[in-house]
Design brief:
384 residues; alpha+beta; Cathepsin B, Chain A; 11-stranded mixed sheet; two-stranded antiparallel ribbon; 11 helices; globular; disordered N terminus
């Protein structure tokens, strides 16, 4: 079910369509009307981990199952994490340590893992230690990182292949061993059978897009960000075209995985708003800062050159992935994108936020969409 809501006395109240859950959100001072919201599953919490890439993309896959009439599924984020970590370690060791080994990743890592290893429901693989209710990977990652660095720094001149067995033992001890089969809806399934029989999901149908001036438009390239350890390819579009792709996807009922920068003071998960005001945080008075996110502020006009400069100067970095699930419009006709985060539901908007069009234009590193969400003339231009 879709909803239309009009502001009354500068206060927005709207419902987001989740499966089996109604979330009421409010926001003051913008005059917002919901123009598009797409069915999603409940907000989750990635805890003390760097696994937003898995939570956002898994949420996206859950929405894809709903879109394709495959029903409600609570998928395991940690199954993907468990499958990606060994590949990441192998890449690091084969490159003699000259590669990124971090807790982060990107949407295409999930698609690759899904293609190779299938998927599992949360009920089959939670990745939680016995008795634990939340994820905390600080110790796990330190152990894994220390191990691969010691493997590379081995002075013996030869590499003992048993390091992989020891590495996987750490993962099994912290996340749990991966079962060969599991029970789901009265059937015994493998991870691959779960995908084919329950989800009908095709990982090869999904592509990533970006917009930067240092590569030719309408051509794919390897995006130069640290978490792209697997050298994923991104289609490069002019900025207005990237914006058009995002809008078209949402208008056609497709949700979008968003990769971008959330390090700015004007990104507030607590208040449920991300904007790029003309007056920067550093130039605001204490009173103005206290009123930030409460009332509308004029925003900068983001050009391709401004976007490129922010990326080149490290002002925009790829530090978080989220799930865009709808659009709203304020009283001035300005668009905001309804975004599902993975930091739990204890926020003003129950774990959701609005990212303004200016914020999207400046701080988006990349997006992932289904190929059918790409406009025909755009798909033709890039050879998709």
């Amino acid at each position: 079910m879709k909803y239309q809501h009009t502001l009354i006395i500068y206060l927005l109240f709207c419902s987001i369509s989740t499966w089996g859950q109604e979330i009421t959100i409010s926001h003051e001072g913008y005059g917002l009307t919901v123009s598009k919201d797409i069915q999603v599953t409940p907000v989750k919490n990635q805890g003390k981990t760097g696994t937003c890439w898995s939570f956002s993309t898994t949420s996206f896959i859950e929405s894809e199952a709903l879109r394709m009439n495959k029903g409600q599924h609570d998928l395991s984020e940690m199954y993907f994490v468990r499958q990606v970590y060994p590949t990441k370690a192998d890449n690091y060791v084969r490159r003699h340590g000259n590669a990124t080994f971090g807790a982060g990743g990107l949407s295409h890592d999930i698609m690759t893992a899904a293609s190779r290893y299938g998927m599992m429901p949360e009920s089959a693989y939670s990745g939680l230690p016995k008795g634990s209710l939340s994820h905390n990977h600080g110790e796990l990652h330190n152990l894994l990182e220390g191990m691969v660095k010691n493997v590379v720094e081995n002075k013996s001149g030869t590499l003992n292949p048993s390091w992989k067995q020891a590495y996987n033992a750490i993962l099994d001890n912290y996340l749990g061993p991966v079962p060969d089969t599991f029970e789901y809806h009265g059937k015994t399934l493998s991870s691959q059978q779960f995908v084919s029989q329950e989800l009908g999901f095709e990982p090869n149908n999904y592509f990533e897009f970006t917009s930067f001036q240092h590569h030719p438009y309408y051509k794919p390239f390897v995006l130069e960000i640290p978490d792209n350890w697997s050298n994923g390819m991104y289609y490069n579009l002019p900025l207005d075209e990237l914006q058009r792709l995002l809008d078209h996807a949402l208008d056609q009922g497709f949700t979008v995985v968003w990769d971008g920068d959330v390090s700015e003071k004007e990104f507030s998960h607590k208040n449920g708003i991300a904007i790029v005001p003309e007056k920067t945080w550093g130039n605001k008075s204490a009173t103005e800062r206290a009123r930030s996110f409460m009332t509308y502020e004029p925003e900068i006009v983001v050009t391709p050159s401004i976007r490129q400069e922010a990326f080149d100067s490290y002002a925009t970095t790829d530090d978080h992935l989220m799930h865009i699930v709808g659009k709203v419009t304020d009283a001035r006709g300005i668009k905001y994108y309804l975004t599902k985060n993975s930091w739990g539901s204890e926020s003003q908007m129950g774990g959701y936020l609005f990212m303004s069009e200016s914020y999207i234009r400046l701080k988006t590193v990349a997006i992932l969409v289904h190929k059918k969400a790409v406009p025909n003339n755009m798909a033709e231009a890039i050879g998709l």
